[in-house]
Design brief:
The complex is a heterodimer of chains A (545) and B (329). With 545 residues, chain A is of the alpha+beta class. Chain A has 20 helices and 20 strands. Helices cover 37% and strands 20% of the residues of chain A. In chain A, strand 6 and strand 7 form a beta hairpin. Mean pLDDT of chain A is 89; it is low at 21-32. The model of chain B has no long low-confidence stretch (mean pLDDT 87).
Chain lengths: 545, 329
């Protein structure tokens, strides 16, 4: 009996050992034969169809297989991609693109102007998120010949439209014209694109996908053989995998690693922390004109905004929210990465004495000695600050801003009503717009569209509360720029206005952090805002010896 | 056990099931937040809310969210009658497919954990109870109390850090590596299971240990144990024929319920080990306000818990003649 137990134990140990050895051999063989980049994501995905995950997850892997008419370089300058050349019409209402002659879909079919036309028509018809800026201004698309196509818009938005087209991925007409419900499509050809990688496989159990370099890519074959894209449930497990060497980098579209992880990543062996300026504004303070103009007149309100701007300690916010990876913002709001950024506009300044001086000059004085300033009618200068309750950083920043303003004698409190009810919070910020102050942010889209006007102006296409005709005129000039030069000039004028009037205040010009390993690959290109997984990286990565 | 017993229980469980279905539906709709935020994406949703509320309303209508709640409930019940659980807003897949896939992996994780937890907890609990106040009893009780007082996720994180990250013996998480099949895949899954199953087993064992220990101690004080000893039975016979047989009842109930609740997954452990089971599915459904997925998931849990309860009732009646007697009279 004892002998038989012994035999079973030995057999079991031998089985386990042979399994471990064979696994190790498999791994080393795979690593030797294939230069594969391993990337981690925390966005769940199912890459059988780039439309399946509607908001943004699809953009992650769609960028491997698909390309737009144009692309960005490291500093977000627009470069040719599927389109080798373009011309914006004089009235700014159309752009004509000349397509690359030798581009083909992954199944070998040539890419034509008909595919481009189909892409925009199909996006519009099904309300798909890709090319959504164009969706707003869609008029029609004409295929002039096999390789020439013109996009027409309802408004003269040529320059803004051109810069937004890099993520407007072109799709093959011969596949999608047969698909009535794109978001439910399960066909195996749902990921055929004309981009630098070809979708190879997806393992639903392992939650990983593989993309093989496209040897026939018309701009050349990427320098790596394949990309292995792995899903992790939490950012902590993904960063552990990065530090351990299971993956080479993290990749989620415009989702940098939060700054709280910076310290642990900076200490990790063979891990580099790519830090580049953000393309949006991470945190801002939006004034609610509707509410404050009930408390004071326009001239008082302008000075009040100035006082608030002086009361805020920007460096503390940069240190607290961005772990110091950022800078105190300028009065002109738009970050340095934006087209038309004016470096001569001064930075915001924390100066409590100046804030108090301005409030005193307005007659907002603490008359009853309770630490809160009073308005001339005797009522207390009390108001609430509304953060979007689903954004942790905004909640923390709102609490800190309350304390800054309280030091200046303003009774600022977190908006408890919105805090306890997300629906109420949505309604207050976007529907009723009856907040006093809102701690929000500007997405790259809102900077690209109208230099953040979306967040402060009360006009069509915006969520803000400022109805100043001067602001609206300036914003229309930005939105309706015919050329990039015109847009640049309009953005400069708008920054000047922002600096003088402060309809909203940037609280943190953050740097965004994208970590990557340096032991297996060198030559990473870090794009402003979007990080190290970008078009340039596919052609610059070099396996380390 | 009679037909009356079974019919009585079936009627009771059917009523309970209907109440649960109703509660699941209405409580999930009471949550603040709209599923459209997830469906459309934050930027588009807020943009529409601010600029084009009528389009937002059209989309609501498309998903049937503009109907009064009572009407939505009626439609839901009708689809349930046709065994149609609907389509997930978040995953854009039929809910039945999602549930089958996730349930399979939840069971792979939890079934061994529950079985091992029951075996270890039952064995050590009996041993400690039988040798009450001995060194082994004190040692086991202190150690398992320490384990039981720790949050699941903390121990899970500790295991990941020590055994996966620093020692590199096991993978950091996931169910398997990609690109494997056959026996390789099966072994790889087993290798990925070691840490999460160990954590869950430890907790299950700790919990079951205290139930079993307490139960054994209580039974040992009963008069029939004294009688058995007075009859001259050996200690082994007293333990196995009298004490354990009676002390097993509370443990049986707990294990049966564990099997019922098994389908709800082990959320925190699943999260730490990136294990795609029911726990994370339900969590995602709550965050996304994915009502059809929430309803489907809770429905499955409710069915399983009721079935497990029913099983516990039957087992109880089968094992304990007193319970059987109560039912029959």
């Amino acid at each position: 009996m004892a002998n038989s137990n012994n035999i079973w134990s030995r057999l079991f140990i031998a089985l386990i050992l042979s399994f471990m050895i064979s696994s190790a051999i498999q791994i080393s063989t795979a690593e030797a034969s294939d230069v594969s980049l391993k990337a981690g994501t925390i966005s769940s995905f199912d890459p059988l169809n780039l439309f399946k995950y509607r908001p943004w997850n699809g953009v992650n892997y769609a960028g491997f297989t698909h390309i737009g008419l144009v692309r960005y370089d490291e500093h977000l300058n627009v470069l040719p991609c599927l389109a080798r050349d373009w011309k914006i019409s004089d009235d700014g209402k159309s752009i004509t693109f000349k397509l690359a002659d030798n581009a083909t879909w992954h199944d070998g079919t040539p890419v034509t102007a008909e595919d481009v036309k189909f892409t925009f028509d199909y996006n519009k018809k099904h309300g798909l998120p890709i090319a959504y800026l164009y969706n707003n201004y869609y008029d029609h698309v004409s295929a002039l010949d096999t390789h020439e196509v013109t996009l027409y818009s309802t408004e003269p938005v040529g320059a803004a439209l051109l810069t937004s087209l890099q993520s407007a991925y072109i799709i093959p007409k011969h596949i999608w014209e047969k698909v009535e419900d794109p978001e439910k499509y399960e066909g195996k050809d749902g990921m055929i694109g004309c981009g630098p990688f070809v979708f190879e496989s997806y393992d639903q159990v392992a939650t990983e996908a593989n993309f093989r370099a496209n040897a026939d890519f018309f701009l050349g074959k990427p320098t790596i053989d394949s990309v292995n894209y792995q899903y992790y449930r939490t950012i902590d497990s993904m960063l552990l995998a990065l530090k351990k060497g299971d993956i080479d980098t993290t990749f989620d579209y415009y989702m940098p690693v939060p700054a709280v992880y910076a310290a642990s990543l900076a200490d990790a062996k063979d891990v580099e922390l790519g830090s580049v300026p953000d393309v949006g504004v991470l945190l801002n303070l939006e004034f609610g004109y509707n509410q404050f103009l009930k408390m004071m007149n326009e001239s008082q309100f302008k000075k009040f905004r100035e006082a608030v701007a002086y009361a805020v300690d920007y460096q503390q916010i940069v240190d607290m929210i961005s772990a110091g990876y950022g800078e105190v913002p300028g009065r002109g709001y738009v970050p340095p990465t934006a087209i038309g950024y004016d470096p001569d506009i001064p930075k915001l300044e924390h100066n409590l004495a100046k804030a108090e001086g301005i409030l005193d000059s307005l007659g907002f004085i603490d008359t009853n000695g309770n630490g809160v300033r009073n308005l001339p009618d005797g009522s207390e200068l009390s108001f609430t600050i509304t953060p979007p309750v689903w954004k942790q950083d905004n909640m923390r920043a709102a609490e800190v801003i309350c304390s800054h303003l309280q030091k200046a004698g303003l009774d600022a409190q977190i908006d408890g009503e919105s805090l306890s009810n997300e629906d109420k919070c949505h309604q207050r910020i976007f529907k009723d717009r009856d907040y006093y102050m809102c701690i929000y942010y500007s997405t790259p889209y809102s900077i690209m569209y109208d230099a953040g006007g979306v967040n402060c102006a009360n006009m069509t296409g915006s969520d803000g509360t400022c109805s100043d005709p001067r602001l609206i005129d300036l914003l229309e000039r930005v939105r309706y720029s015919n050329t990039l030069e015109q847009r640049s000039e309009a953005v400069r004028a708008l920054q000047q206005y922002y600096s003088e009037e402060l309809p909203f205040i940037a609280l943190d010009w953050a740097n965004v952090l994208y970590p990557y390993r340096t032991d297996r690959f060198g030559g990473w290109k870090i794009q402003d805002g979007y990080g190290n997984m970008n078009f340039d990286t596919w052609f610059s990565l070099k396996p380390e010896a | 056990m009679t037909y009356g017993f079974v019919i009585n229980r079936i009627l009771r469980y059917t009523g309970t099931f209907f109440i649960i279905v109703t509660l699941i539906f209405f409580v999930s709709h009471l949550m603040p937040g709209s599923p459209l935020k997830n469906i459309l994406g934050e930027v588009t949703y807020f943009n529409l809310m601010s600029q084009n509320p009528e389009i937002l309303h059209d989309i609501e209508a498309e998903y049937g969210l503009d109907e009064p709640l009572a009407e939505q409930f009626r439609i839901y019940l009708l689809s349930l009658i046709h065994f149609d659980l609907g389509y997930s807003y978040k995953y854009r897949q039929p809910i039945s497919d999602l549930l089958i896939f996730r349930l399979k992996w939840t069971m792979v994780l939890l079934l061994p954990a529950i079985i091992f937890g029951a075996i270890f907890g039952g064995f050590f609990g009996s041993f400690a109870g039988w040798h009450r106040n001995s060194c082994i009893d004190s040692g086991l009780t202190s150690m398992l109390l320490f384990v039981y007082s720790m949050p699941h996720y903390w121990l899970a994180m500790l295991f990941v850090l020590v055994f996966a990250f620093h020692m590199g013996i096991f993978p950091l998480g996931g169910i398997t590596r990609g690109g494997l099949d056959g026996l390789d895949k099966a072994f790889d899954i087993l290798w990925h299971m070691v840490l999460p199953v160990s954590v869950l087993t430890l907790f299950g064992a700790a919990y079951n240990y205290f139930i079993m220990r307490g139960s054994v101690i209580q039974v040992m004080e009963e008069g029939f144990v004294l009688t058995a000893r007075a009859k001259g039975l050996t200690e082994r016979d007293v333990l196995f024929r009298h004490v354990l047989r009676n002390a097993m009842l509370p443990l049986l109930t707990v294990i049966a319920l564990d099997f019922g609740f098994m389908v709800s997954g082990a959320l925190l452990v699943e999260i730490v080990f990136s294990w795609g089971g029911m726990g994370t599915l339900i969590y995602d459904a709550v965050l996304a306000r994915d009502y059809p997925l929430l309803h489907g998931s809770f429905l499955v849990i409710a069915c399983c818990v009721l079935a497990a309860n029913f099983l516990a009732d039957v087992l109880y009646a089968a094992v304990d003649p007193r319970v059987r007697g109560d039912v029959e009279t």
